[in-house]
Amino acid sequence: MNEIVFPKNKEKAQQMAAYMKNLFPFAGVAAPERAVLEKELLKVSKKMPVTELFDLICFYYQKSEREYQYLAIDLATVNVKRFSFEDMIHFKPFVIEKAWWDSVDAWRKFFGLWGAQHFEEMPQLFDAFFGEEDFWHRRIAINLQLLYKEKTNTVLLKKAIIYDKTTDEFFIQKAIGWSLRQYSKTEPNWVQTLMEETDLSPLAVREGSKYLPKP
What we know:
Distance between the termini: 59 Å
CATH topology of the largest domain: Serine Threonine Protein Phosphatase 5, Tetratricopeptide repeat
Number of helices: 12
Pfam family, one: DNA_alkylation
Largest sheet: none
Radius of gyration: 18 Å
CATH architecture of the largest domain: Alpha Horseshoe
Organism: Enterococcus rotai
Structural class: mainly alpha
Protein name: 6-O-methylguanine DNA methyltransferase
GO biological process, one term: methylation
Order of helices and strands: HHHHHHHHHHHH
Shape: globular
CATH superfamily of the largest domain: ARM repeat domains
InterPro entries: ARM-type_fold (IPR016024), DNA_alkylation (IPR014825)
């Protein structure tokens, strides 16, 4: 199949880059248009050998414009059911390459989906990110279970939160608050107790308590 080349729209590209603090160049392709352009490749990718697919993901992730990183993550995500634990570990370095909240949270969704389908191995996946030097990796450990609801492993969630509770990094404290806010929809009492027993940052408390009953 021919290589995907996103058409360039200078005006949109400038707007999209500005939204991401001009950290990355953009082609200027909005998500709905990108979805149309990607559709056939995503379909074909499901029949590719895993090694070939991984090479294709690497190829697109290395390209300059940000939309190609999104494409690479989409390729990984639509094939998530095909990957073994060993395969998943091969994707870990991508998290801290060209890292910002948009790509990291997209990778978190990818890893989270795999964990939801492999609950017995999910703790091993958590361990691959927990306590890592790079805070973007640790953000994934904190938010790995965002969509797990009643299946959330609270031992791991608490472990990740406690580890980084004093970390002076906005994206870590935001992640702690996000994980607590999300889980409070399922177990508000657990979240309330953790917040009462743990000296969390004001940001984490503010974010995490949004859905809790007001005193």
